[in-house]
Amino acid sequence: MKTKHDDLELTSDMLTRIDEIDNTVHQCICVLAEKEIDWNMEIIGEVADSIQNVLQRHGIKMRWPSIVDKADGTQHYSED
User: Fold this and answer.
1) What is the tally of structural domains in the chain?
2) 59 lies in which domain range?
3) Do 9 and 23 touch, CB atoms closer than 8 A?
4) Whole-Å CA distances, 7 to 1, 10, 26, 69, 80
């Protein structure tokens, strides 16, 4: 579905999925660093992007909901 800017909102299910990804990635960072790391969305986002890229290279889809803004002013939901 395409619509003009600011019309779309993430659903509660989408927000829950995003929180699940962020929390899991943060936990992974802490485990790998062997210490509690402060919550930092810049790091979490970069690690999540990297994980998604590796999974895609191996043919594994990661459902990561978002709203994409297009240059023509429309928006659409994405699960990639």
Assistant:
1) 1
2) 3-78
3) no
4) 11, 10, 30, 11, 20
- Whether the CA torsion 65, 70, 73, 76 is positive or negative: it is negative
Q: Specify the pLDDT at position 73.
A: 87
Percentage of residues in the chain with pLDDT exceeding 90?
Answer: 81
pTM reported for the whole predicted model:
0.83
Alpha carbons 1 and 6: distance in angstroms, whole number: 13
69 Cβ contact list (under 8 Å, min separation 6) = 5, 75
Alpha-helical regions (H) of 4-68: 12-33, 41-57
Which pLDDT score, from 0 to 100, does residue 7 have?
Answer: 81
